[in-house]
Each structure stands twice: as C-alpha cells, then as structure tokens.
Amino acid sequence: MSMELPALSIAEVQARLRAKVVSPAEVLRALDERIAQVDPQIHGYLSRDLAAALKCAENADVSLPLGGVPIAIKDVINVTGEPCTAASKILQGYRSNYDATVIRKLRAAGAIPFGRCNLDEFAMGSSTENSAFGHTRNPWDTSRVPGGSSGGSAAVVAADEAFAALGSDTGGSIRQPAALCGIVGLKPTYGRVSRFGLIAFASSLDQIGPFTKTVRDSALVLNAIAGRDPQDSTSLDEPVPDHTALLGRDLKGIRLGMPREYFIDGIDPQVDAAVRAAVRHYESLGAEIVEVSLPNTEHAVGVYYIIATAEASANLARFDGVRYGHRAADATGLLDHYGRTREEGFGPEVKRRIILGTYVLSSGYYDAFYLRAQKVRTLIRRDFSAAFEKVDALICPTSPEVAFKAGDRSDDPLKMYLADIFTIATNLAGIPGISIPCGFASTDGRQLPIGLQLLGKPFHEPQLLQIAHAFEQSTDWHKARPNLA
Amino acid sequence: MSAQFDVRYTAQLARLNLSEAEISKFQTQISQILAYVEKLEQVDVRGVEPTAHANAIFNVFREDKARDWFTAEDALANAPRAANQLFIVPKVIE
Questions:
Q1: pLDDT grade for A413, boundaries at 50, 70 and 90
Q2: Mean local confidence (pLDDT), A262-282
C-alpha cells in the first residue's frame, strides 16, 4: 500500500482519504518513505519537516477541497517555521515567520505543505544547475537536467515523490520543467494568484502556479490559490470561477492557433513531430486549427533579459546582510559590508543578472535598453491580443528540445537563455499557459518527455484547462512514469 | 553600445564585489548578451507606449490603519546581528 499511494493523483488520493481507506498521516508517511527511497537519485527536495506536516495532519478536514493532501513547495515561497533559501547561500539558515498568501489559501483548502523543492538560485535558470545546494536530476534520465527554474518541483511530482507542487514562472520556470519531466505545469494569468510571500525575481512577470500529474488536479490547486489579495496590489479583483467547471466538455467550436514563429528550424525534429501530431489530434477532437502570426516573437528573449534582470537587480538589493541572510564577517565599513556580503552570498548566474540589470537601468543606458524593451513588450502583447481575436487558444511546443545533459551549457548563458524562447513571451504578455505531456523522444536509448504548450486569453484558465483536459483524456501520455529503482 | 559596458563600474553600482576571474568572465559574457539584445534597436517603436505591467493597474489604496504584523522579535528573528531590539549595522558616519 505505502508503495502505491505516492503514485496517485490528488483526485485519487482524496477519494481514498474521504472513504477513510487511509488517513492523512498515513499518506504523509508513505510519501516520506518514497522520498527517502528515490530522492537520493533525484535531489528534488532541499528539506522536509515530517513532524510539522504530521501535526497539520492531525486536524486535517478531508471534506475540504484539498483536505489532507500534502503539497510540495518551491523553496522560494514562505511557509511559517520552514527554511526558504531560494537555493542561495545568502539565505542559508533563514526561517520564515509568516505564510505566503498561497500557503494560507492552501491551508484553508485543507492541504498540507510538505517539502521544500530545489530550484535555480533565485529562480534564475532553466536547468536547476544554478542551485547552491546541488543539482536536481531528471527522473527520466538522471544524467539530464529536469529543466528550471522550478526543476525540483517538477522532478518530485514526476518521480511520485509528491502529488503536486507549487512553483513560480517568470519566463517559463513552471512550463519548461513540466515539459522536460512529463507532467502538467500551469502558469496562471498575471494577477490571478497573489505573489505575497514569494521571493521576488521579476515582479512584473512572476506568477505562482501548480505542477500536477493531471489537468484536473491543476484546476483543483488553482481553485485553492487564485484570487485577489489585499497584500499584493498586482493581484486582480476578478471573480474566481470553478476551474473544473468546463472539464469534459467537447471542443466543438474551439479554434486553436498555430503561431508560425513557434514552428521553426532548430526545433528538435522529434519535438516538432510530436507537437504536430498533437495538433492533428485536436482536429480529430473537433477543434478548428488556424495558422496565426506573432511577428515580434524573435524579440522576446532580448526584451525579457532586459526587463527581468532590471527588476531582479532592484529586488535583490534587499539582500544586504542586515535584516536576514548571510553577512560578511569583519566589514571595515558599509561599502565593504555590502560588497562582500553579496559577493559571498550570491552564485555566478545571480551575479551576472544583477550586473546586467544594473547596467540596463544605469544613467545613460535606461532609454536605450530598458525603455526600449518596455516598448517592444507592448508590441509583443499586441501580437497576442490580435491572435486572440481569431482563436481561443494557441498551440505550440513548450520547449524546442527535450531534457539536455547536465553540464552541457552551464557555462554558456546566452545558449541557456534561448532554451526559453517559446515560454518567455507569455510572461511578457501576462497571459496564462499550460504544458501537458504529448509524447516521447528516443534519445540515447532513453524515452524523454515532450511538452505541448497551450496559451490562453487572460483569465480564461477554465477554457484553457478544458482544452488541455480534452487532449489528456483522449491520450495516454500522462500515464507514463519514469522507471526509478 | 555594449563596447562601453564596464563590469567593474557596474559592479560598484550594484554594491557587489567580484573576483578578478569573475570580472574578466562577466565582461565577455555580458558583452555577448548585450550584443544580442541590441537587435532591439532595429524594432520600430515610434509612437509605442511602454508596458511596465501586463495589466493596467492603477494606484491601489487601503485604509491608513495599523494591522497586526511582525513583532520586533519576529522582525529580528533572522537578523545576523541584533541587540537591544535593533539591527546592528556597520558604522555609517565617521
């Protein structure tokens, strides 16, 4: 029994909890056992506190929407009493003394936060190799990366070490690792979910979302975490619909757009073939396929690396060795204190981005880089608005490739940045996106998952989930599991 | 424009010390990234308003009323140095 429990979806484990076949404490212990067994190969978790979780389980009300269900949390979202390192040495030893709003909402829905997931330091990266506390490995091939930055969250769900996990997505950090690990990853509309208690990377782009084994589970978690929060002025006062309401409806009348800029040379041919097969499958399900154009796509990576690093350089100024985190010893003065605290605390990719972000905001360069990037961002948003006048959602690859070998490009930042070409524009436009499994590529005798990306209109998550669910329920890709000893 | 990028000066602005090895590596890598983003110069943005945010958000106000939040002990709980309910910082004024 304990070996089978962790393989369940949220909906399945919930049915067992409500039927009193298992107790919340038994579920937690089974997960803990599974983690002890497989996580040494994966390193998806940075820490976990079974005792604290078991205490929550004592009062768990299984009748609640996520009653008694443990959910793993990216180590960049604050949970009272737990570490929150952002995978950075600068926050080693830090303990949260408040809950992020998403955690408060998860608890209100009956869920139990359990386990802190590894990530690229401060969510900066696409491979989880930038963690100060060791790489996470892809459960489908442990010599490969799980994607990033939420690579730990994706890997633990794919390896049945969690039923679901929260991650954050600034330029693809939920969707790309979900694709590379063969699970479902949802980035909600900007403003749909409160960012209060999420360590900020790029505030105009960051959004928290779920990693799950099924589309229905994704809807269940989004139901719990969505909504306006007075503590996040960028969360919007839009009514929160039931995100499961449209699941199971057919796709008659649904129009899906294939952006021609997302089907280009340079995509892994096996990825291209799987995504095109998925498009044909949608046609067979009754959806109409339309070719659309997003002409400013080629500028998205450039715009992103100006805006995201500029915002990051400002957000990370708070790590000054005074209120929390690492502090350099024996500073000779204030500048020495700041300079060495930050030198010792931050890893190479974070330093690189702080420097780049500081530069593009600095006197004399602001207009040429930052202001221009914000204007091109307007053009990118307009592309999507125009496309959504013709179609209900867009269909494309999540990533141009499958999971790559660890170490392959960790010293080539530009090449690493280009791993995000299909996910970045979504954040710039603020629209929702989901990655679902749509096939496998055979590489070096291994089966590596391929992700299908669907992008929707702002606040149209119920429809986006409906479209994703229709594909999932008429294919078997989501049922495949990596073979971990 | 990237030719004028000076990693040493920018690191000072960012209050971030770098090793000599990092300085030479970042000078090269960030210059390459800047050369890439300079492609944006070719985009016609005449008459285009900048987007700071995906949603049109205006000022959000709340009542100017104190709420329960951290106690002084909570606020100091993670401080690397604290005493007498205060953060200890290096001497700023000579």
A1: confident
A2: 95
- A41/A34 Cα distance (integer angstroms): 12
Q: C-alpha distances in angstroms, A342 versus A316, A328, B7?
A: 10, 8, 16
Taking each continuous run of H as one helix and of E as one strand, the counts in chain B are: 3, 2
Catalytic residue status for A149: yes
**For residue A2, what pLDDT is reported?**
46
- The yes/no answer to whether this complex scores an ipTM above 0.90 is yes
**Contact between residue A296 and residue A381 where contact means Cβ atoms under 8 Å apart:** no
- CA dist., res. A83 & res. A293, Å (int): 45
Signed CA dihedral, A285, A290, A292, A298: sign only: positive
Closest CA to A66 of A282, A225, A236, A284: A225
Residue A143 has pLDDT above 60, yes or no: yes
Q: Pick from A93, A105, A291, A300: which is nearest to A205 by CA? A: A300
The answer to whether A310 and A52 have CB atoms below 8 angstroms apart is: no
Smallest CA–CA distance, residue B92 to chain A, in Å, is 6
**Partners of B1 in the β-ladder:** none
Segment A282-326, tens digit of pLDDT: 999 999 999 999 999 999 999 999 999 999 999 999 999 999 999
Residues in A closer than 8 angstroms to B89, CB to CB, are: 322, 334, 337
Domains annotated on chain A, with CATH: 5-253 (3.90.1300.10), 297-376 (no CATH)
**A with B: how many residue pairs have Cβ under 8 Å apart?**
172
Q: Is the pTM of this model over 0.90?
A: yes
Query: Quick check: A337 and B22 CB within 8 A?
Result: no
Please tell me what DSSP assigns to residue A435: E
> Nearest 5°: phi and psi at A129?
-85, -15
The distance of B17 to chain A (nearest Cα, Å) reads: 5
**Nearest-by-CA chain B residue for A352:** B26
* CB within 8 Å: B87 and A236: no
Query: Which of A95, A317, A322 is the closest to B89 by Cβ?
Result: A322
pLDDT tens figures, A84-97: 999 999 999 999 99
**Distance (Å, whole) CA A232 – CA A389:** 30
* B80 contacts chain A (CB < 8 A): yes
Residue to substitute from A330, A359, A388, interface B, most B β-carbons within 10 A: A359
Cβ within 8 Å, pair B37-A322: no
Q: Which of A229, A349, A361, A375 to mutate to test the interface with B (most CBs of B within 10 A)?
A: A375
In this predicted structure, the answer to whether residue A485 has a pLDDT above a threshold of 80 is: no
Q: How do the domains of chain B map onto residue ranges? A: 1-41
